[in-house]
Amino acid sequence: MMAKIFARKFNKSSYFCLESWRKPCRVSEVKILTLESSTPIQAMMLISFCSDKPPYDVTLALTLLLSMGCGLGENVFMSQHIILESIANFRQLGGLIAANGRKIRANCLFRCSALDRLNEPDTQQLAQLAGVTILDYRDIHEAQAKPDRIVAGGDYLNVPANPPDLAVDAKVVEFLPQAIEALDVDRFMTQLYQQLPFNNPAWHQLIATLSHPETNTVIQHCAVGKDRTGIGCAITLLVLGCEESVIIDDYLATNGRLESIGQQALAQWPVAVSEKAQANFRQLLSVDKAWLVAAFTEIKQRYVSIDQWLEQEYGVTAQQRQTIQDKWLEA
Predict the structure, then answer these.
(1) Do residues 35 and 2 make contact, with C-beta atoms less than 8 angstroms apart?
(2) pLDDT exceeds 70 at position 38
(3) Lowest mean pLDDT among 47-56, 120-129, 147-156, 163-172
(4) Is 241 within 8 Å of 100 (Cβ atoms)?
């Protein structure tokens, strides 16, 4: 299937004419056709010929790409979003509105559950992304028990994000039925979210990864991709200048995406487990606006502002924040 590639960086004063359009058009409107159909490709791979189109001058097209700022190692992404069929709760942050009304670049920042069930077609999709870093927020024993499938060319970092107080352990899928039955889920989750944003080495690594010049794609995940990953993505979006309402909407998109994980876990439970335990477990595998708001509220109670929290906890200066925004937001 023919796919359309959108060149995002351009010189507004430049013009380019595609014969198939029958009219001159600004470079901002140019869509370069390629035979590639379902995966992102790098700029040097973008130029191809279409059997039903005139053979455009490759040198001219490549010059156009470079003039628009498409570096040779930079991903130029297809308009189609990447979808992984084998991984629960997989989605991207691309397209969300961030600082100064700019959008997050498509197909660059992802969140999901663990990648241990990644199938071959999905592995191949991720392998074609450039500069991939996978941040696995699970504890070491979680990652060892269900290791991520290796993505060719990608960097994998296991950076546990659990708070030191294991009374509010984020590994909810490992809880025993008896413990879940006695749990006050709202109270437990509120306490967890109040602790996750602070003194957390995982978020130092997250900031370093977002800042790294050779990182073009970041995949954040934990076991199910909702709590540790939820806070990691909230921090990412805060650094990028997103409003809290945008962050909350992205967070709530987890609901309805974890049925397969819940069914697999419940299948391992004894038959006689109470309805209350099952109901509590289903709640644990959901997200609630109040839980994320509890994290924001705790930050504001400890610090004058989000900016102060980011700088004092994780060293994010105003200059570094601008650099990160310029890297991950559309021009």
Answers:
(1) yes
(2) no
(3) 47-56
(4) yes
* For residue 3, pLDDT beyond 60: no
Contact 139, 171 (CB under 8 A): yes
Say what the pLDDT of residue 92 is. 97
Query: Could you write out the three-class secondary structure of 294-330?
Result: HHHHHHHHHCCCHHHHHHHHHCCCHHHHHHHHHHHEC
At residue 133, what are phi and psi to the nearest 5 degrees? Answer: -125, 125
Distance CA 331, CA 76 (A): 14
Higher-confidence residue of 52 and 316: namely 316
The predicted structure's pLDDT at residue 80: 60
Residue carrying structure tokens 């796919």: 3
Segment 218-239 mean pLDDT: 98
CB 220 within 8 A of CB 232: yes
Distances (CA, A) of 161 to 96, 234, 303: 24, 14, 21
pLDDT at residue 54 tops 70: no
Residues 222, 256: contact at Cβ < 8 Å?
Answer: no
The answer to whether 27 touches 15, Cβ cutoff 8 Å, is yes
Phi, psi of 244 (to 5 degrees): -60, -35
